[in-house]
Amino acid sequence: MTAGADGTPGGIAAAGSVPTLHTLSVGTAGPRVAFLHGLFGQGRNWSQIAKALAGPDGDGARSTLVDLPDHGRSPWSGEFSFAAYADAVAATLRGIDADAKWMVVGHSLGGKTAMLLALQHPELVARLVVVDIAPKSYGSLERFSGYIAEMERLPLSALTSRGDAEARFEEPNAGVKAFLMQNLRRDGDTWRWQANLGLFSADAAKGTGSVIADWPTSAGDLPAFDGPVLWVAGSESEYIRDEDLPAMQALFPKVRQLTVKGASHWVHTDAPEVVVEALRRFVRPLADGS
Question: Which residues form the AB hydrolase-1 domain (predicted)?
């Protein structure tokens, strides 16, 4: 494991610095694989997939589960930037294995970060897997505004226990509730959100000016990534549309798409067996040394 750049989880990274991100490791041998989670997620959300990829002997792959900046135990940012997120992931992966070529898997926010990582640091990325996100603007963070508002309404200073917090948190979807509540942490007698809620709330308040919902125009000035790319979509998700393919092909000419039947935006949660098998096949050339 690695801690925040300042030694404390959730600390503010110094201006202009590239923070070292918190990670978890799964597997003992095999190709290097990095997993990047979505908004309000944590690296450990990929634990089930990473363990399956490692296999019973742990030698199928060596996976690194990354807490992105402003999430989990990684340092917070003063302002959101996909380029800075990608640089932080790059620095963290180099710190783990300076000579490795990685297969990078990213979902949603992590998928955009993974795409920019491949474009900004192609020497690090051998293969790229983008899960249910496209290189485009999604307009705003409207999909998350209700979640953010409910998180902000939770009276942290009045909480007596996690059970009390869960009872007060008014989210009818049990899966979404559990996902968001994983960000709640207790420090002695006080409670805090581990994710940088203030930063995300301020971005959501920008409406169509949201940076998180957008795609950085700087990506178009970078050379296309020439490595193999697997683009995984959920058939029941609205995040990827047919008209997104030309933009994806322009940046990633060797892209091929896999649509998982019956899966929502949370493809790896809805169909873990399908995702694991797809990753096994996609990482195999690295295992074979090709």
Answer: 31-271
